[in-house]
Amino acid sequence: MDLKRRSWALWLAVIAALALIGGTVAACGDEEQTPLKIGVLLVNSETQTDTALDRLRAFKLAIKHVNEAGGVFGQPVEVVEGDTLNPQEEARRLIEEEGVHAIVGPNSSADSLLVIEVAAPAGVLVISPSASSPLLTANEDGDLFFRTVLSDVAQGPALAQLTRERGFDNVGVIYRDDAWGQGLAAAFKEAWTGGIVAVSSPADLQESYLDLIEESAREGAQALVLLTFWPEGEVILREALDSGLYEQFLFGDALRVADVAEAVGGGRLAGMYGTVSSPSHENPSTAIWEEAFRDEYGRDTEATYVRETYDATIAIALAAEEAGEAEGTAIRDALRGIGAAPGEHVRPGVEGIARALSLIREGDEVDYAGASVSMDWDEFGDLRRGYIGTWRFTADGAIEDVDVIAYER
Predict the structure, then answer these.
(1) What is the number of alpha carbons within 13 Å of residue 291 lying toward its C-beta?
(2) In 339-407, which residue ranges form alpha helices assigned H by DSSP?
(3) Which terminus of the chain, N or C, has fewer Cβ atoms within 10 Å?
(4) pLDDT digits over 344-389, tens only?
């Protein structure tokens, strides 16, 4: 073979090799990465509360923002909705049948304990926007349970301080006999220095609570600290007022519901205070989020832990992008890095999320400044810092936010 023919043969071999390499790369590129699939457990089909529905709306807003920002792995995030009527059964369906990689929810601490029993062995991440019981901190969950609400180790002392500031030194306490009520009551009692009679209330709705009210008042309580959900809270408040046993009340976060004042009627709860895990009034991310929620739904929301639901969803999406794969344990391992320093501050909304996703893809660090608080988690999945807000019912039955107290440990 002469030199010219040999050179031509070598050139053809090079072209063939490059074509083979190119084909291999293209084939790899054609293999679509598994889309991120998130389950949501927030709404009970039997109750359909406005609070739960607004949390679901916040979840959907977060998904919309992520997908409009380009999605995770360049693909739309997929969603599967579940029903909290049977949280453990629904968690099993979401995981085993639908193949979700993470779950946002559930609302309550008691339901969270049930869901973790299914999710943790399956390696599925769970982030609750509202399960605040301290009992969840030490729970065996394989580091697969996080929350975007402060533990009640923060709310309990704040409620005790508020009670003292209202001029009371002897109180009755009625608390829901579940993980949330037990945890908040214990945190309150540990911080309380005055007289106290604490009584547990069944988690199932009762026709009457008069015997519990009488028991809580037996040492001459000046006020009733009520740590229940709103259906039983409504009954307890009416009976406490009608019996003349109480005229003054303080509330945990679950009773920050305007329907309570409306049900009791006549402005009878005007000037009664409570506490709730809350964003700072000066948080720029909160203002951005509130405008986005208003633009999407045509109104504001006063429901609790709605912003926290948005934050939980965004955190999962950013952590999945950081992990580079849609697997619960991989998302978990990346989660703490996207919500704390170091990293560029990124905020809610399509623009902020698009910036965050771009930074992550470029190998840079992000610090997501949430619509509620900074997502700075400790080794237990609890927030290291945040705010406890104080609020009160007004004469017309509305809810007025009064102040916020910074919490950090």
Answers:
(1) 8
(2) 350-361
(3) N
(4) 999 999 999 999 999 999 999 999 999 998 899 999 999 999 999 9
Find out whether 200 and 225 touch, Cβ atoms under 8 Å: no
DSSP string, 180-197: HHHHHHHHHHHH--SEEE
Helix axes 350-361, 50-68, angle to 10 degrees: 50
Angle 29-33-39 (CA atoms, 0-180°, nearest 5)? Answer: 165
Cα–Cα dist 400/278, whole Å? 13
Rounded to the nearest integer, the mean pLDDT of the chain is 92
The pLDDT-based confidence of 32 (bands split at 50, 70, 90) is confident
Amino acid at 224: L
**Residue showing tokens 């406490």:** 240
Which pair of tokens denotes residue 85?
Answer: 């009527």
Burial bucket for residue 399 (CB in 10 Å: 0-12, 13-18, 19+): middle
**Which of 109-113, 128-132, 150-154, 260-264 has the lowest average pLDDT?**
260-264
Q: Which residues pair with residue 171 across a beta bridge? A: 196, 223
Amino acid 31: pLDDT: 60
Please give the model's pTM, rounded to 2 decimal places.
0.91
Using DSSP bridges, classify how beta strands 273-278 and 385-393 pair: parallel, antiparallel or unpaired. Answer: antiparallel
One-letter amino acid at 358 equals S
What element of type H or E holds 286?
Answer: helix 284-297
| Residue found by looking up tokens 């002392």 in the block | 157
Name the pairing type of β-strands 37-43 and 78-83. Answer: parallel
CA-CA distance, 371 to 360, in Å (whole number)?
20
**Quick check: 46 pLDDT over 70?**
yes
CA atoms within 13 A on the CB side of 247: 1
**Residue keyed to tokens 């809350």:** 278
Give the list of residues 6+ apart from residue 279 with CB closer than 8 angstroms, or none: 285, 286, 307, 371, 372, 373, 387, 404
Whether 237 and 225 have beta carbons less than 8 Å apart is answered as no
